[in-house]
């Protein structure tokens, strides 16, 4: 096949960007065992022979039983962050099997917001009803719904308001609370005081589930409801692009050309909303140190190295982002460090990079959707040994782990150098990561696990309705 013409390139790029306009990376935010499990040492009835499931012939959609069910999805906000985008993905999965899906956003700005408007139109186009969080229609829908999914801890504010209408008995038995947060400030009674009484909690990683179990008990004297760990999976659309060599090449060339990065250069990327908790500052310092190591050791075989930070917000220019840009100027790295504004279409940037850096700090990511998305593109991962990342990345096999905090900066720098120097190690880790995704982190894996949870919640709701 000849090299695509300029017109073909543009057509490919436009098509792929459109297909991936709802990639739920969390702006962009995506498991060593993908099991739904009961926290506290007791396994629910959901564990099954994994090998049997993987080798079984194609079977009906595991969410098919949700056909004609009325599902109310409650999000604390509608934005380009992980929680809302994951809930939107669930909305589309449920619509795909014929469920009636209604969406409520509890916190919306008074003024018109372009992002909110765009996301609402995407949902409406896919048959998801979008209604106001206030008023009789919202309450009527909540009462009639077969299932209510409360998304993130902050969404508890809506629940508190709803329960003031004296419908606590009717709502709590059919609520599944989907939690993604790993920060201590979410443990406030006004947010989670009803958590012990809902039908169940669904959490993205074992690390986060254990944290919530311990924290609610120690800080609030509260016991978690029945809790399920459900790891996420890559969408079919993203994997189609990841497995299309022509599409990947076109995207890679397009992005690299826009950044001023040559094909033979090495590009390390960090793809998260720019904030101190995501560790972009420590990554850039480690990147700068890796350049020093290469210079000191006279590693002439290493290609020119670049770093890209995807997830900026140029319109806001926060103090933290200003610090990042000032550091780049101070170290004279302007030709090697590139900033890209936040976007839903991250696949082009995954295709363009050679290594993903997942540098979330403190307790790490709850899960880290971008991690499995990068692995789907055969991109190795340098990640912090914290949170859900350790349930995804196999250290030394699909990537390399380093500690969080400043003490993890030097190991990260050394790992950057290692993957820059050892080409075959880098490529092998990328291939291993792809195989791990195919084995554990695809959409049908996620759908199957979520289906098992939803069945139990529906049974719980039905049993309480008969009382």
Automatic annotation (TrEMBL):
CDD domains: GT4_PimA-like. Residues 253-435 form the Glycosyl transferase family domain. Keywords: Glycosyltransferase, Membrane, Transferase, Transmembrane, Transmembrane helix. It holds the Pfam family Glycos_transf_1. The chain crosses the membrane at residues 12-30. GO terms for molecular function: glycosyltransferase activity. PANTHER family: GLYCOSYLTRANSFERASE (PTHR47252:SF4). This is Glycosyl transferase family 1 domain-containing protein. It comes from Microthlaspi erraticum. The lineage of its organism: Eukaryota, Viridiplantae, Streptophyta, Embryophyta, Tracheophyta.
């Amino acid at each position: 096949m000849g090299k695509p013409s300029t017109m073909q390139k543009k057509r490919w790029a436009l098509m792929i960007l459109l297909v991936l306009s709802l990639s739920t990376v969390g702006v962009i935010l995506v498991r060593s065992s993908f099991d739904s499990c009961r926290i506290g040492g007791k396994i629910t009835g959901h564990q099954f022979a994994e090998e049997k499931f993987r080798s079984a012939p194609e079977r009906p959609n595991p969410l098919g039983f949700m056909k004609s069910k009325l599902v109310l999805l409650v999000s604390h906000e509608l934005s380009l962050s992980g929680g809302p985008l994951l809930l939107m993905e669930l909305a589309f999965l449920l619509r795909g099997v014929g469920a009636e899906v209604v969406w409520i956003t509890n916190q919306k700005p008074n003024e018109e917001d372009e992002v909110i408007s765009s996301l609402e139109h995407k949902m409406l186009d896919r048959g998801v009803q979008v209604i106001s969080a206030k008023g009789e229609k919202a309450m009527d829908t909540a009462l009639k719904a077969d299932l209510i999914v409360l998304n993130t801890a902050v969404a508890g504010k809506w629940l508190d308001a709803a329960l003031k209408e004296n419908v606590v008995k009717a709502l709590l038995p059919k609520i599944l609370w989907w939690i993604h947060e790993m920060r201590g400030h979410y443990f406030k009674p006004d947010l989670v005081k009803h958590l012990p009484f809902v039908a169940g909690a669904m959490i993205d990683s074992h690390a986060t589930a254990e944290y919530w179990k311990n924290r609610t008990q120690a800080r609030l004297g509260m016991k978690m409801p029945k809790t399920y760990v459900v790891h996420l999976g890559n969408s079919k659309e993203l994997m189609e692009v990841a497995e299309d060599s022509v599409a990947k090449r076109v995207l890679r060339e397009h992005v690299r050309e826009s950044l001023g990065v040559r094909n033979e250069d090495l590009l390390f990327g960090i793809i998260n909303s720019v904030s101190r908790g995501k560790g972009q500052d420590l990554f850039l310092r480690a990147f700068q140190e890796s350049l020093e190591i290469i210079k000191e050791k006279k590693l002439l075989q290493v290609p020119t190295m670049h770093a890209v930070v995807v997830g900026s917000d140029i319109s806001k220019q926060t103090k933290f982002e200003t610090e990042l840009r000032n550091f780049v100027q101070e170290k004279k790295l302007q030709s090697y460090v590139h900033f890209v504004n936040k976007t839903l279409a991250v696949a082009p940037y995954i295709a363009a990079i050679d290594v993903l850096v997942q540098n979330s700090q403190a307790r790490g990511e709850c899960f880290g959707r971008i991690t499995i998305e990068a692995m789907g593109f055969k991109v190795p991962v340098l990640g912090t040994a914290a949170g859900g990342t350790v349930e995804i990345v196999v250290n030394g096999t699909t990537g390399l782990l380093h500690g969080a905090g400043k003490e993890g900066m030097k190991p990260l720098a050394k790992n950057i150098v290692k993957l820059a120097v050892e080409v075959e190690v880098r490529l092998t880790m990328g291939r291993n990561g792809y195989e791990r995704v195919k084995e554990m982190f695809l959409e049908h894996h996620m759908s199957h696990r979520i289906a098992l949870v939803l069945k139990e919640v529906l049974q719980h709701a039905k049993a309480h309705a008969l009382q």
